[in-house]
Design goal:
The chain is an alpha/beta fold. The protein has 10 helices and 12 strands. The protein is 31% helix and 20% strand. The protein has an 8-stranded parallel β-barrel with strand order 1-3-4-8-9-10-11-12, surrounded by 4 helices. A 3-stranded antiparallel beta sheet has the order 5-7-6. The protein is globular, with a radius of gyration of 19 Å.
Length: 323
């Protein structure tokens, strides 16, 4: 049966009143795709309303095209630490006829580069004095381990080397479960500290059968991840903070099945994820994907309705304090 807007919002707001059941804290909160080779959107964020403590930095294959010293300085001035995405520094896609991953060029797998140790050594030599726990909240070893067919042995080898090069900084790998996702990893490499878990199109992760959800498997897949964690490992949740027609345009919206999420729904997605995260002892934070609109098919947080950014700021203020 169609759920009216009043019913949807009533359920969300009513659930938020259950704050007395909180068992966890959100310690990490930030936007992806803030800065990278030739761009820096950091100055947009305070103007648009935000309260975060992390911003993500991207690198291309030629990692020197990202002006990391300047970005780290700008982040520190703004009271942020960086999350460095090191996929392209360490890994590369190769043709693989037996792989289950496919792109426009055909079947592929993602492996460590033949010269990855030399590249990492040069990166550490150039930036080791700057990439410290004071400036960098975590390092992303690989953003999509299952969806781009990365062997877990390669992830672990990279993690061991990164821990030696940048001690004291948590290491993250991404684990995607949205429509079309490749099979989940059978385990989590031991030197990974946090797992970034994301599944797009989930309006309320705590209610598997909720009509606005893309499917009813979120909790099953989340619990499967938790079962694979070692005692020291934790989770970062990735709620949708973008709007894209292929992802959201066909979901259960205001006018019923298939009418699509209106963009302001992303406000309540963020609030629902906050509520869920605070009931999960293994969750240490959330990352909002994503701030920018550099992909023409994606509307980033920067151009979503202001109420979405307002919700992100509410979450940040509650959990991190307001600047």
């Amino acid at each position: 049966m169609h759920r009216s807007l009043r019913t949807v919002l009533g359920a969300v707001l009513g659930a938020l009143l259950l704050a007395g059941t909180v068992r966890a804290e959100i310690l990490v909160l930030g936007y992806t795709d803030v800065a990278g080779p030739g761009y820096n959107h950091l100055e947009e964020i305070p103007e648009r309303g935000s309260a975060t403590n992390v911003a993500f930095v991207n690198f291309e294959e030629n990692w020197t095209t990202t002006d990391l010293p300047t970005l780290l300085r700008d982040f520190q001035t703004s009271g942020l630490r960086a999350a460095l995405i090191l996929d392209h520094l360490l890994f590369k896609r190769f043709p693989a006829v037996s792989s289950s991953c496919r792109d426009a060029q055909g079947l592929f797998a993602t492996r460590l580069r033949a010269n990855w140790r030399n590249r990492l050594a040069r990166f550490a030599e150039a930036y080791g004095a700057r990439v410290t726990p004071a400036t960098t909240r975590f390092l992303v070893v690989q953003t999509e381990v299952n969806n781009i067919c990365v062997p877990l042995d390669d992830v672990e080898a990279a993690a061991v080397a990164l821990k030696a090069a940048f001690p004291g900084i948590p290491l993250v790998m991404g684990y995607g479960r949205s429509l079309g996702a490749q099979p989940a990893p059978e385990s989590i490499p031991p030197d990974i500290d946090w797992v970034g878990f994301y599944k797009y199109g989930i309006f309320d992760p705590a209610q598997p059968g909720y009509s606005q959800n893309a499917d009813d498997q979120y909790l099953v897949e989340f619990e499967s991840l938790l079962a694979k964690l070692d005692a020291h490992q934790r989770v970062l949740l990735g709620p949708d903070a973008f709007w894209a027609d292929p992802v959201h345009g066909h979901l259960y919206g205001q006018s019923g099945p298939g009418s699509g999420w209106p963009r302001w729904y992303l406000r309540y997605v963020a609030l629902n994820y906050e509520r869920f995260a605070k009931t999960q002892p293994k969750v240490v934070g959330m990352f909002f994907f994503r701030w920018s609109n550099r992909d023409p098919d994606i509307v980033g947080t920067v151009d979503l309705p202001p109420v979405v950014r307002d919700a992100h700021r509410e979450i940040g203020c509650r959990n991190l304090g307001c600047r």
